[in-house]
Amino acid sequence: MSINKTILIVEDEDHIAQGIQLNLEMEGYKTIVAPDGPSALEIADSTHLDLILLDIMLPGISGYDVCKEIRGKGSRVPILFLTAKSDEEDRIQGLEVGGDDYITKPFSLKELLLRIKAIFRRQAWFATPGKVEDEYRFGGNVINFKTFTGKGPHGTVTLTRKECMMLKFFAEHPNEVVSRDMLLDGVWGYDAYPTTRTIDNFVLRLRKHFEDDPAHPEMFLTVFGAGYKFVPPST
């Protein structure tokens, strides 16, 4: 069996790294293991990677900082955080610095494999031309789904993958009420994580980027008790 995808495992605990590596290779993935942040950054700079499994509590440099540096260099490789931290703020921080998902230790290998498959499935959806063009315009706003950049009333912004995916999902369902569970399934590929509060946080960020007055949104609307509705301007 050959999946032809390479996954970097950044984990300083040998037994955890080896267990993940063994199971991923049994599933047909190619793997590389890095025990710390500096070696992970070196590998990320020199190797084509399809996914990074990134522990947060690393010696010397945290997983958050590793992610920031990778994103700062323009890399869009999906990053799945592995961590013992379970606080909601830590989860949100991981997504805000450019992570794609988050799984809390201890986790089952079955759950990890499902998360990995969901990331690749959502990545394929995001990269496939659909109802919206790579450059999408709504009102005076514009977003480029290829470069992860946008232009709104407050200037040019660099977006995370998840922000782009959220906006693409909204753009594919204009003027429709979409529940938080629909957003979880559509953007993350399952409905167990993240929490609905994380969805609310992402909507707030889209409002901040693209609404004239984020406190009084006209496009990214809350439908109380039901979810959200994206109402793009008609002109």
Q: Helical content, roughly?
A: 40-55%
Question: What about the largest sheet?
Answer: 5 strands, parallel
Number of domains: 2
Number of strands: 12
Radius of gyration: 18 Å
The N- and C-terminal alpha carbons lie at a distance of: 51 Å
Shape: elongated
CATH class of the largest domain: Alpha Beta
CATH superfamily annotation of the largest domain = Response regulator
Number of helices: 8
The structure class reads: alpha/beta
CATH topology of the largest domain: Rossmann fold
Order of helices and strands: EHEHEHEHEHEEEEHEHHEE
As laid out across the biggest beta sheet, the strand order is 2-1-3-4-5
Extract low-pLDDT stretches: none
- The overall pLDDT average reads 89
| β-strand amount | 15-25%
> Based on the structure given, which CATH architecture of the largest domain is correct?
3-Layer(aba) Sandwich
Descriptive tags:
235 residues; Rossmann fold; Arc Repressor Mutant, subunit A; 2 domains; 21% strand; elongated
Describe this structure in words.
This protein has 235 residues and is an alpha/beta fold. The chain folds into two domains: 6-127, Rossmann fold (3-Layer(aba) Sandwich), CATH 3.40.50.2300; 135-230, Winged helix-like DNA-binding domain superfamily/Winged helix DNA-binding domain (Arc Repressor Mutant, subunit A, Orthogonal Bundle). The protein is built from eight helices and twelve strands. Strand 6 and strand 7 (141-144) form a beta hairpin. Helix 2 packs parallel to helix 3 (63-72) and helix 6 packs across helix 8 (196-210). The N and C termini lie far apart (51 Å).
